[in-house]
Design a protein that fits this description.
Layout: H1 2-25, H2 39-52, H3 139-142, E1 156-160, H4 161-169, H5 181-186, E2 197-201, E3 232-235, E4 237-238, H6 240-248, E5 252-257, H7 260-267, E6 292-293, H8 326-329
Parallel strand pairs: 1-2, 2-4, 3-5, 5-6
Protein backbone atom coordinates (compact mmCIF):
# COMPACT_ATOMS: atom_id res chain seq x y z
CA UNK A 1 0.00 0.00 0.00
CA UNK A 2 2.89 2.36 0.78
CA UNK A 3 4.47 1.73 -2.61
CA UNK A 4 1.14 2.27 -4.37
CA UNK A 5 0.57 5.57 -2.60
CA UNK A 6 4.10 6.73 -3.42
CA UNK A 7 3.75 5.78 -7.09
CA UNK A 8 0.39 7.53 -7.27
CA UNK A 9 1.90 10.67 -5.81
CA UNK A 10 4.72 10.55 -8.34
CA UNK A 11 2.23 10.16 -11.21
CA UNK A 12 0.12 13.00 -9.86
CA UNK A 13 3.17 15.23 -9.64
CA UNK A 14 4.23 14.38 -13.19
CA UNK A 15 0.72 15.11 -14.49
CA UNK A 16 0.61 18.45 -12.72
CA UNK A 17 4.00 19.42 -14.15
CA UNK A 18 2.88 18.51 -17.66
CA UNK A 19 -0.36 20.41 -17.19
CA UNK A 20 1.49 23.51 -16.05
CA UNK A 21 3.92 23.20 -18.98
CA UNK A 22 1.05 22.85 -21.44
CA UNK A 23 -0.78 25.85 -20.02
CA UNK A 24 2.33 28.02 -20.39
CA UNK A 25 2.69 26.99 -24.05
CA UNK A 26 -0.99 27.51 -24.87
CA UNK A 27 -1.78 23.80 -25.42
CA UNK A 28 -4.68 21.72 -24.22
CA UNK A 29 -3.70 19.98 -20.93
CA UNK A 30 -5.95 17.01 -21.60
CA UNK A 31 -4.08 16.14 -24.81
CA UNK A 32 -0.67 16.22 -23.17
CA UNK A 33 0.64 12.87 -21.94
CA UNK A 34 -0.95 9.48 -22.03
CA UNK A 35 -4.27 8.47 -20.53
CA UNK A 36 -2.59 6.71 -17.66
CA UNK A 37 -0.84 9.88 -16.57
CA UNK A 38 -3.71 12.29 -17.13
CA UNK A 39 -5.05 14.35 -14.25
CA UNK A 40 -8.39 12.54 -14.15
CA UNK A 41 -6.77 9.14 -14.07
CA UNK A 42 -4.41 10.11 -11.26
CA UNK A 43 -7.31 11.65 -9.33
CA UNK A 44 -9.32 8.44 -9.59
CA UNK A 45 -6.33 6.40 -8.49
CA UNK A 46 -5.68 8.70 -5.53
CA UNK A 47 -9.33 8.56 -4.45
CA UNK A 48 -9.35 4.75 -4.45
CA UNK A 49 -6.10 4.63 -2.49
CA UNK A 50 -7.39 7.12 0.07
CA UNK A 51 -10.52 5.07 0.60
CA UNK A 52 -8.39 2.01 1.35
CA UNK A 53 -6.12 3.82 3.79
CA UNK A 54 -7.03 5.36 7.17
CA UNK A 55 -6.31 8.89 6.05
CA UNK A 56 -4.09 11.13 3.99
CA UNK A 57 -0.59 11.31 5.40
CA UNK A 58 1.25 13.07 2.60
CA UNK A 59 4.41 11.91 0.90
CA UNK A 60 6.09 10.08 3.74
CA UNK A 61 5.45 8.76 7.22
CA UNK A 62 4.98 11.12 10.14
CA UNK A 63 7.46 10.88 12.96
CA UNK A 64 4.76 10.33 15.57
CA UNK A 65 3.15 7.55 13.52
CA UNK A 66 -0.26 9.22 13.48
CA UNK A 67 -2.69 9.96 10.69
CA UNK A 68 -2.97 13.72 10.56
CA UNK A 69 -2.95 16.51 8.00
CA UNK A 70 0.78 17.27 8.12
CA UNK A 71 2.18 17.16 4.58
CA UNK A 72 5.48 18.31 3.20
CA UNK A 73 5.88 21.30 0.93
CA UNK A 74 5.28 20.50 -2.75
CA UNK A 75 3.05 17.49 -2.06
CA UNK A 76 0.00 17.42 -4.39
CA UNK A 77 -3.36 17.76 -2.68
CA UNK A 78 -5.92 14.96 -3.27
CA UNK A 79 -9.32 15.80 -4.82
CA UNK A 80 -11.13 15.52 -1.50
CA UNK A 81 -8.70 17.95 0.13
CA UNK A 82 -6.43 17.48 3.11
CA UNK A 83 -8.71 19.17 5.64
CA UNK A 84 -11.52 16.66 6.10
CA UNK A 85 -13.69 15.72 9.03
CA UNK A 86 -12.16 12.26 9.24
CA UNK A 87 -8.68 13.82 9.56
CA UNK A 88 -9.40 16.25 12.39
CA UNK A 89 -7.82 15.07 15.65
CA UNK A 90 -5.70 16.35 18.50
CA UNK A 91 -1.94 16.26 18.51
CA UNK A 92 -0.36 13.08 19.85
CA UNK A 93 -0.43 12.85 23.65
CA UNK A 94 -2.57 15.98 23.88
CA UNK A 95 -5.56 14.06 25.19
CA UNK A 96 -5.68 11.02 27.44
CA UNK A 97 -8.63 8.76 28.08
CA UNK A 98 -9.84 8.52 31.66
CA UNK A 99 -8.94 5.28 33.42
CA UNK A 100 -12.18 3.35 33.95
CA UNK A 101 -11.87 1.23 37.05
CA UNK A 102 -14.13 -1.54 38.30
CA UNK A 103 -15.13 -2.73 34.82
CA UNK A 104 -14.01 -6.36 35.01
CA UNK A 105 -10.76 -8.22 35.42
CA UNK A 106 -10.00 -8.09 31.69
CA UNK A 107 -9.34 -4.35 31.92
CA UNK A 108 -6.62 -4.75 34.55
CA UNK A 109 -8.46 -2.34 36.86
CA UNK A 110 -11.39 -4.52 37.90
CA UNK A 111 -12.46 -5.99 41.25
CA UNK A 112 -10.34 -3.94 43.68
CA UNK A 113 -9.83 -1.22 41.03
CA UNK A 114 -6.08 -0.99 41.64
CA UNK A 115 -6.45 -0.33 45.40
CA UNK A 116 -5.39 -3.75 46.65
CA UNK A 117 -7.33 -5.88 49.10
CA UNK A 118 -7.11 -4.30 52.56
CA UNK A 119 -5.51 -1.37 54.24
CA UNK A 120 -6.03 2.29 54.89
CA UNK A 121 -5.69 3.35 51.26
CA UNK A 122 -8.26 0.81 50.05
CA UNK A 123 -11.09 2.38 52.08
CA UNK A 124 -13.33 5.13 50.84
CA UNK A 125 -11.98 8.41 52.16
CA UNK A 126 -8.90 6.63 53.46
CA UNK A 127 -5.33 7.77 53.31
CA UNK A 128 -3.06 9.79 55.55
CA UNK A 129 -4.03 13.42 56.07
CA UNK A 130 -2.08 16.22 54.46
CA UNK A 131 1.21 16.79 56.28
CA UNK A 132 1.23 13.42 58.07
CA UNK A 133 4.75 12.01 58.27
CA UNK A 134 4.17 8.59 59.77
CA UNK A 135 3.93 9.69 63.38
CA UNK A 136 7.03 11.85 63.66
CA UNK A 137 6.67 15.54 64.30
CA UNK A 138 5.61 17.10 60.99
CA UNK A 139 7.56 19.94 59.47
CA UNK A 140 4.78 22.47 60.08
CA UNK A 141 5.03 21.84 63.84
CA UNK A 142 8.80 21.63 63.88
CA UNK A 143 9.42 25.15 62.57
CA UNK A 144 8.70 28.01 64.96
CA UNK A 145 6.19 30.76 64.30
CA UNK A 146 7.48 34.04 62.97
CA UNK A 147 5.72 37.37 62.62
CA UNK A 148 2.00 38.02 62.35
CA UNK A 149 -0.61 39.21 59.87
CA UNK A 150 -1.94 42.66 60.60
CA UNK A 151 -5.74 42.53 60.48
CA UNK A 152 -5.83 46.30 59.87
CA UNK A 153 -3.51 46.16 56.86
CA UNK A 154 -4.38 48.25 53.81
CA UNK A 155 -3.51 47.08 50.29
CA UNK A 156 -3.25 49.86 47.71
CA UNK A 157 -3.26 49.51 43.94
CA UNK A 158 -0.26 51.34 42.41
CA UNK A 159 -0.71 53.83 39.57
CA UNK A 160 2.40 55.20 37.85
CA UNK A 161 2.60 58.70 36.40
CA UNK A 162 3.77 57.29 33.09
CA UNK A 163 0.69 55.10 32.84
CA UNK A 164 -1.53 58.02 33.84
CA UNK A 165 0.01 60.17 31.11
CA UNK A 166 -0.59 57.48 28.48
CA UNK A 167 -4.31 57.35 29.35
CA UNK A 168 -4.57 61.15 29.21
CA UNK A 169 -2.82 61.24 25.82
CA UNK A 170 -5.17 58.55 24.53
CA UNK A 171 -8.22 60.60 25.59
CA UNK A 172 -9.43 58.07 28.15
CA UNK A 173 -9.01 60.54 31.03
CA UNK A 174 -9.93 64.24 31.05
CA UNK A 175 -7.21 66.34 32.78
CA UNK A 176 -9.51 69.39 32.91
CA UNK A 177 -11.51 67.91 35.80
CA UNK A 178 -10.52 66.42 39.12
CA UNK A 179 -9.57 62.78 38.58
CA UNK A 180 -10.84 60.40 41.23
CA UNK A 181 -10.33 56.71 41.79
CA UNK A 182 -13.71 56.05 40.19
CA UNK A 183 -12.43 57.69 37.00
CA UNK A 184 -9.45 55.34 37.08
CA UNK A 185 -11.74 52.32 37.35
CA UNK A 186 -14.13 53.53 34.65
CA UNK A 187 -11.21 54.12 32.26
CA UNK A 188 -9.77 50.68 33.15
CA UNK A 189 -6.57 52.25 34.34
CA UNK A 190 -6.77 49.97 37.38
CA UNK A 191 -8.54 46.73 38.12
CA UNK A 192 -12.11 47.18 39.39
CA UNK A 193 -11.34 44.76 42.23
CA UNK A 194 -9.28 47.36 44.04
CA UNK A 195 -9.16 46.72 47.79
CA UNK A 196 -8.17 49.62 50.03
CA UNK A 197 -7.45 52.39 47.55
CA UNK A 198 -4.91 53.74 45.06
CA UNK A 199 -1.37 54.99 45.57
CA UNK A 200 0.15 57.33 43.00
CA UNK A 201 3.82 56.62 42.20
CA UNK A 202 6.39 58.64 40.24
CA UNK A 203 7.51 55.94 37.79
CA UNK A 204 7.60 57.27 34.21
CA UNK A 205 7.65 55.58 30.83
CA UNK A 206 11.00 54.83 29.19
CA UNK A 207 11.96 57.00 26.22
CA UNK A 208 12.66 55.26 22.90
CA UNK A 209 14.83 56.14 19.90
CA UNK A 210 13.84 56.19 16.22
CA UNK A 211 14.26 52.41 16.02
CA UNK A 212 11.89 51.70 18.92
CA UNK A 213 14.64 50.74 21.38
CA UNK A 214 15.10 52.18 24.85
CA UNK A 215 17.06 55.44 24.74
CA UNK A 216 20.10 56.24 26.92
CA UNK A 217 22.10 59.38 27.51
CA UNK A 218 25.84 59.79 26.97
CA UNK A 219 26.59 58.38 30.40
CA UNK A 220 24.55 55.26 29.75
CA UNK A 221 21.64 56.22 31.99
CA UNK A 222 18.08 55.47 30.93
CA UNK A 223 15.96 58.32 29.58
CA UNK A 224 12.32 58.77 30.60
CA UNK A 225 9.39 60.66 29.07
CA UNK A 226 8.69 63.62 31.42
CA UNK A 227 5.22 64.16 32.83
CA UNK A 228 3.71 67.23 31.15
CA UNK A 229 0.03 67.46 32.21
CA UNK A 230 -1.52 69.69 34.87
CA UNK A 231 -3.95 67.53 36.79
CA UNK A 232 -5.85 67.51 40.07
CA UNK A 233 -6.03 64.04 41.55
CA UNK A 234 -7.81 62.50 44.54
CA UNK A 235 -6.15 59.26 45.64
CA UNK A 236 -5.61 57.37 48.86
CA UNK A 237 -1.84 57.77 49.05
CA UNK A 238 0.90 59.43 46.99
CA UNK A 239 4.66 59.20 47.01
CA UNK A 240 6.74 62.27 47.78
CA UNK A 241 8.36 62.39 44.35
CA UNK A 242 5.05 62.01 42.50
CA UNK A 243 3.53 64.84 44.53
CA UNK A 244 6.47 67.10 43.74
CA UNK A 245 6.19 66.39 40.01
CA UNK A 246 2.47 67.19 39.88
CA UNK A 247 2.72 70.31 42.04
CA UNK A 248 5.64 71.62 39.98
CA UNK A 249 3.32 71.69 36.94
CA UNK A 250 0.56 73.53 38.80
CA UNK A 251 -1.48 70.48 39.72
CA UNK A 252 -2.67 69.20 43.06
CA UNK A 253 -2.84 65.83 44.79
CA UNK A 254 -5.33 65.28 47.63
CA UNK A 255 -5.11 62.25 49.88
CA UNK A 256 -8.65 61.17 50.77
CA UNK A 257 -9.84 58.48 53.16
CA UNK A 258 -12.60 55.97 52.49
CA UNK A 259 -13.57 53.05 54.65
CA UNK A 260 -14.70 49.80 53.11
CA UNK A 261 -18.33 50.87 52.76
CA UNK A 262 -17.46 54.34 51.49
CA UNK A 263 -15.06 52.97 48.90
CA UNK A 264 -17.74 50.62 47.61
CA UNK A 265 -20.18 53.52 47.41
CA UNK A 266 -17.60 55.55 45.48
CA UNK A 267 -16.96 52.88 42.85
CA UNK A 268 -20.50 51.45 42.67
CA UNK A 269 -23.06 54.12 43.57
CA UNK A 270 -25.81 52.17 41.78
CA UNK A 271 -25.63 49.62 44.62
CA UNK A 272 -27.18 52.17 47.00
CA UNK A 273 -30.69 52.97 45.72
CA UNK A 274 -31.75 54.48 49.08
CA UNK A 275 -28.93 57.01 49.04
CA UNK A 276 -25.19 57.06 49.60
CA UNK A 277 -23.85 56.53 53.13
CA UNK A 278 -22.16 59.22 55.16
CA UNK A 279 -18.43 59.50 54.50
CA UNK A 280 -16.43 58.00 57.34
CA UNK A 281 -13.95 60.09 59.25
CA UNK A 282 -10.39 58.76 59.15
CA UNK A 283 -9.24 57.04 62.33
CA UNK A 284 -6.88 58.89 64.63
CA UNK A 285 -3.98 56.70 63.55
CA UNK A 286 -4.48 57.60 59.87
CA UNK A 287 -5.13 61.34 60.12
CA UNK A 288 -1.47 62.15 59.52
CA UNK A 289 -1.48 60.07 56.33
CA UNK A 290 -4.50 61.72 54.68
CA UNK A 291 -5.62 65.25 53.97
CA UNK A 292 -9.34 64.84 54.55
CA UNK A 293 -12.21 62.38 54.38
CA UNK A 294 -13.41 61.40 50.95
CA UNK A 295 -16.63 62.84 49.62
CA UNK A 296 -19.65 60.94 48.33
CA UNK A 297 -20.08 61.55 45.50
CA UNK A 298 -16.60 62.54 44.43
CA UNK A 299 -14.92 64.86 43.66
CA UNK A 300 -15.48 67.53 46.28
CA UNK A 301 -17.01 70.85 45.15
CA UNK A 302 -14.62 73.70 44.28
CA UNK A 303 -13.24 75.56 47.27
CA UNK A 304 -13.99 72.77 49.69
CA UNK A 305 -11.41 72.79 52.49
CA UNK A 306 -13.13 70.92 55.32
CA UNK A 307 -10.56 68.86 57.23
CA UNK A 308 -12.24 65.52 57.76
CA UNK A 309 -15.97 65.53 57.15
CA UNK A 310 -18.34 66.56 54.38
CA UNK A 311 -21.94 65.65 53.51
CA UNK A 312 -23.44 67.16 50.34
CA UNK A 313 -26.97 68.44 51.01
CA UNK A 314 -28.43 66.70 47.96
CA UNK A 315 -27.05 63.33 49.10
CA UNK A 316 -28.08 63.60 52.75
CA UNK A 317 -28.63 60.17 54.24
CA UNK A 318 -32.30 59.29 54.59
CA UNK A 319 -33.66 56.41 56.67
CA UNK A 320 -35.28 53.51 54.91
CA UNK A 321 -39.08 53.81 55.32
CA UNK A 322 -39.38 50.03 55.45
CA UNK A 323 -37.25 49.83 58.61
CA UNK A 324 -38.75 51.02 61.87
CA UNK A 325 -36.66 53.09 64.27
CA UNK A 326 -35.22 51.45 67.32
CA UNK A 327 -37.92 52.94 69.58
CA UNK A 328 -40.68 51.17 67.70
CA UNK A 329 -39.03 47.78 67.58
CA UNK A 330 -39.34 47.01 71.28
CA UNK A 331 -40.94 48.62 74.29
CA UNK A 332 -38.68 50.44 76.73
CA UNK A 333 -37.88 48.78 80.02
CA UNK A 334 -40.31 49.47 82.85
CA UNK A 335 -38.89 51.78 85.48
CA UNK A 336 -39.01 51.00 89.20
CA UNK A 337 -42.28 52.24 90.67
CA UNK A 338 -43.82 53.00 87.30
CA UNK A 339 -47.61 52.43 87.29
CA UNK A 340 -47.94 52.24 91.10
CA UNK A 341 -49.74 54.63 93.39
CA UNK A 342 -47.71 57.18 95.29
CA UNK A 343 -48.08 56.59 99.06
CA UNK A 344 -45.40 59.01 100.21
CA UNK A 345 -47.95 61.65 101.32
CA UNK A 346 -50.35 59.26 103.01
CA UNK A 347 -49.05 58.20 106.48
CA UNK A 348 -51.94 55.88 107.03
CA UNK A 349 -50.79 53.66 104.19
CA UNK A 350 -47.22 53.38 105.44
CA UNK A 351 -46.11 50.42 107.57
CA UNK A 352 -49.65 49.19 107.78
CA UNK A 353 -50.84 52.10 110.00
CA UNK A 354 -54.65 52.43 109.89
Amino acid sequence: ATMLRRSALELCGAALRRSALASTRGLDPNTVGTASTSIDGVARMMSSLLLQSRGYRGDGRRKDGGYGTLVEAGTPIPPGGVMALNNLRDNPHAKYDKVRVGRGNGSGKGKTAGRGHNGQNSRSGGGAPLGFEGGQTPLARTLPKRGFVNKHRMVFTPVNLGRLQDFIDAGRLDPSKTLTMKDFVDARLIDPRVKSGVKLLAKLERARDEFGNFAFDEEGKALYVPFRHTVNVEVSRVSREAKEIIESLGGRVTRVHYNKLGFRALLKPHKFPDGLPRPARPPIGLRRQVDRAGTLPAPAPPGYEAPFYYVPPETEWKPNPNIKPDGEKRKPKRQVGEGREDYSNDPSRIFGVQ
